[in-house]
């Protein structure tokens, strides 16, 4: 029997997500945007809810196409607000639009969003070299969330960024007893 991260519980959907997706490095900006937005939609809810609604969320948000989302109008927002297949939180929906615009600006200024986040991670960790602590990942997430806020991102904070960094493989979030955990995985 495989030992997994404790958050998987005994749920087949969570196990499948953990085993096949969570923590694997993601390099595609559109996929990174999807993962970030799913973490934002999850705020205050369970991850099971997000996974069960994921296909509907992806469809409703045009597969997280940045250009399309950045150009959503009032009609599209209204359509999203009445879509029972998604998380119908207006602040989160508006954050998706704002965050798409912010990510496009980052791409224009810095190239790929992956490179941008990875460079932030490396700069912050380099500045903290020798300052080991059990809160190292939280400090990283806090600093990145502050930078993202300054870059115009909405509905973002350390907890969301921490979850995003783990889900997209920027940091190793697997429990030490998990079969996917690797001491060699550097973050």
What's this model, at a glance?
The chain has 187 residues and is an all-alpha fold. Helices cover 59% and strands 0% of the residues.
Describe this structure in words.
The protein is mostly helical and 187 residues long. The protein has a single domain (10-167), classed as Endonuclease III, domain 1. It contains nine helices and no strands. Helix 2 crosses helix 3. The protein is globular.
Keywords:
single chain; 187 residues; mainly alpha; Endonuclease III, domain 1
CATH H-tier superfamily = Hypothetical protein, domain 2
Question: What's the tally of helices?
Answer: 9
Q: Oligomer, anyone?
A: single chain
Secondary structure category: mainly alpha
H and E string: HHHHHHHHH
Count of the separate structural domains: 1
What is the global morphology? globular
């Amino acid at each position: 029997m495989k030992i997994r991260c404790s958050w998987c519980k005994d749920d087949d959907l969570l196990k499948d997500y953990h085993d096949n997706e969570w923590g694997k490095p993601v390099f595609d900006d559109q996929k990174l945007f999807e993962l970030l937005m799913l973490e934002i939609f999850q705020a205050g809810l369970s991850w099971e809810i997000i996974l069960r609604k994921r296909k509907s969320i992806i469809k409703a948000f045009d597969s997280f196409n940045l250009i399309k989302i950045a150009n959503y109008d009032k009609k599209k927002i209204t359509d999203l607000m009445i879509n029972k297949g998604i998380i119908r939180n207006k602040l989160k929906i508006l954050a998706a639009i704002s965050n798409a615009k912010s990510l496009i600006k980052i791409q224009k200024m810095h190239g790929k969003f992956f490179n941008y986040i990875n460079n932030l991670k490396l700069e912050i960790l380099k500045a903290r070299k020798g300052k080991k602590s059990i809160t190292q990942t939280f400090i990283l997430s806090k600093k990145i969330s502050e930078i993202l806020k300054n870059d115009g991102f909405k509905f973002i904070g350390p907890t969301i960024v921490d979850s995003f960094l783990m889900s997209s493989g920027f940091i190793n979030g697997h429990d030490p007893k998990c079969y996917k955990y690797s001491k060699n995985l550097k973050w």
